[in-house]
Design brief:
By secondary structure, the chain is of the alpha/beta class. Helix 3 packs parallel to helix 4 and helix 11 crosses helix 12. The chain has one domain: TIM Barrel. The strands form 3 sheets. A 7-stranded parallel sheet has the order 6-5-4-3-2-1-9, with helices on one face. Strands 7-8 form a two-stranded antiparallel ribbon. Strands 10-11 form a two-stranded antiparallel sheet.
């Protein structure tokens, strides 16, 4: 396979290190911390890099591939004060948090929670994932988020499917323009897409739309029963789309989430080793999955245990070390965890290039 991008010179890397100093410092610290865990303590349970907090299980849409539509483990939402305390516990071990759901904008106190994360708890990265249908009712979020991620699978409306994302395209596109004006810059908005056989052409349109509007484009394939559709590998239209995405990222023609090598692994279903505790998933009541959500096991509760470290230790005692899953799910975050741990220097060089 040909190289995805030219190797940067030492001077280019140095300039990149200086330009991205806080990001680089965090990554170096995290890398050596996890190197110690793997080499000395002989465990694949790595330290959390960013927490994924499920604010609610409720959603106003009904996407068939959604893993949260009928979650394997339900939990109740904590009151606002207790939830902020949960966020405070998370902040002790990571400075990055992603609010997700369900649909987080259905939670009545979501603006208060996000503001507390940014202003009171001083998270350095506060992101939120939404289907975009309710953003016009939550515009105060634009003042407190570092980044907004809007899920979109089609630009063509399907009027007879009101509970689907395509059934709400006009409203989401209007709200994306609100976000474009409300966030500090268009690049603070990411459009996250899920590729299926039916929407390959639509994903290509969204790719172009992101380039035109200055939004970041992100993608992965849909899961069905937590498994990707491997038939896509034999689909010429899918192969052409993947090639276009990777080439635009390689040429820096537009902002696309992930490095060329990482995108190849995600979209061409390449091999990777998952380190799921790098992005621990926290349910509304504080339960934390160990080692990952698809295995349906709860390692412990952050409110009771007081730290991810104790939750992971409890989970490891109950269920053992992280198993070799043979790169089954190809979720973007899980592939990212592999590159952070197994190919940190290549990822760093490609990121700051």
């Amino acid at each position: 396979m040909a190289n995805d991008a030219p190797t940067p010179s030492g001077l280019q890397l140095l300039r990149g290190l200086v330009r991205h100093y806080p990001f680089v410092l965090k990554n170096f610290k995290h890398y050596f911390q996890n190197l110690y865990r793997r080499a000395i303590r002989r465990t694949n349970v790595v330290a959390p890099y960013a927490a994924v907090f499920y604010t609610t299980h409720k959603c106003n849409l009904d996407c068939f591939y959604c893993t949260q539509k009928e979650p394997d483990v339900f939990s109740d939402e904590l009151p606002t004060r207790e939830t902020i305390e949960l966020l405070r516990i998370i902040r002790r071990e990571t400075d990055s948090i992603l609010f997700t759901g369900g649909e987080p904008l259905l939670r009545a106190d979501i603006e208060q929670l996000v503001a507390a994360a940014r202003r009171e708890l001083k998270f350095r990265s506060v992101l939120l994932v939404t289907n975009g249908t309710l953003l016009h009712k939550r515009t105060a979020l634009f003042e407190t988020l570092h980044g907004l991620i809007v899920s979109l699978d089609s630009l063509t409306p399907i009027e007879n499917q009101p509970d689907s994302k395509p059934g709400n395209v006009p409203r989401v596109l209007e709200n994306l323009q609100l976000a474009r004006r409300g966030m500090p810059k268009p690049g603070d908005v990411t459009i996250s897409t899920v590729i299926e056989e039916w929407n390959i052409a639509e994903i290509e349109r969204i790719l172009d739309y992101c380039g035109e509007q200055g939004f970041v484009f992100a993608t992965q394939t849909a899961l069905n029963e937590k498994m990707p559709n491997l038939r896509l590998k034999q689909n010429p239209r899918y192969q052409a789309l993947v090639a276009k995405i990777i080439e635009r990222r390689r040429a820096k023609a537009q902002a696309i989430n992930g490095t060329p090598k990482l995108l190849r692994t995600v979209l061409e279903f390449g091999d990777f080793q998952c380190f799921p505790t790098m992005f621990p998933r926290v349910y509304p009541n504080g339960d934390v999955f160990y080692p990952c959500e698809p295995l349906k096991k709860i390692g412990g509760n952050l409110i009771r245990e007081g730290s991810f470290r104790k939750v992971f230790a409890r989970g490891r005692k109950l269920y053992g070390d992280i198993p070799e899953c043979k790169a089954i799910c190809h979720l973007f975050g899980n592939v990212v965890s592999s590159y952070y741990v197994k190919d940190f220097w290549g990822l760093a060089g490609d990121t700051i290039r």
